[in-house]
Amino acid sequence: MRKSILLIVLLIVMACSLRVYASELDATDIVRHSDDLMRGDSRSGTYSMKIITSRWERELTLLVRSQGRDKMFIRILAPAKEAGIGTLRIKNEMWNYLPNVEKTIKIPPSMMLRPWMGSDFANDDLVKESSIVNDYTHQIVSREDINGESVLKIEFTPKPDAPVIWGKLYHWVRENDFVPLREEYYNEKGKAIKILEYSDVGQVSDRVVPRTWTMKSLTNKGHSTTIKLLDVTYNQTIDSAVFSMVHLKSVQ
After folding, report:
1. How far apart are CA 74 and CA 44, in angstroms?
2. What would the pLDDT profile of 111-157 be if each residue is shown by its tens digit?
């Protein structure tokens, strides 16, 4: 009984320490911690992507590998008719590979707002060309209670001349562990374009993160895209050859 009481007290102290730590950070620090939590030093694994529109539905299985903030590789594994299609980003450059025609297409900055494979995620959302840490200024605009948890609402405003595609962003982040819960995207005219909702928060590899991400369009009624983490590992070494044009074209 005494050990149980001591354990409860220890957990309470740890939770309070996290809250104090969060309160000492500025908005940019919090955004950086949240971004690092979702990215890790590296990620490797399979994801599902379900795309729903007013006319059709389809589901993709993706192999995703990333290294820091500069490298991302995505390969479609299923369905068969799209298997092998790949996307590669290295720093500020991005390419798509279409195996059926054996063609590599370089994606210009003007197409970063275009949907990736017909989904509600833009090219920029998937490969994160723009940096939510470095390309925006951040301000905590409110503290909110969501399901009994303290959540920070943070406003993102683009820095002058930053290579971003959004006029403004809002992120909701849990104060005690920096887990993101919601994001809102606005164009340069201040119009809300879409909402990203995170759910099913749980253990993935060495961390606790949302395992389901649902992007809902506010301009196309009935359109949404849901990504689920199927089998993902953080912070394991990835062969640098993965992030190369040779690998992009080497469909097994």
Report:
1. 10
2. 888 999 999 998 888 766 568 898 999 999 999 998 889 999 999 99
Instruction: Summarize pLDDT for 11-67 with one digit per residue, the tens.
Output: 444 444 444 445 568 999 999 999 999 999 999 999 999 999 999 999 999 999 999
Of 99, 25, 62, nearest to 225 by C-alpha is 62
Q: Tell me the C-alpha distance between 232 and 42, whole Å.
A: 10
Report in angstroms the alpha-carbon separations of 5 from 11, 12, 13, 15, 19: 10, 11, 12, 15, 21
Q: In angstroms, how far apart are the furthest CA atoms of the chain?
A: 69
pTM of the model: 0.86
For the chain, domain boundaries? 2-249
Superfamily designation of domain 2-249? Lipoprotein localisation LolA/LolB/LppX (2.50.20.10)
The tokens of 169 are what?
């962003």
Which helix H or strand E contains 29, and what residues bound it?
A: helix 27-39
Q: Can you point out the beta strands (E) in 122-167?
A: 136-146, 149-158
Tokens of 195: 């909402």
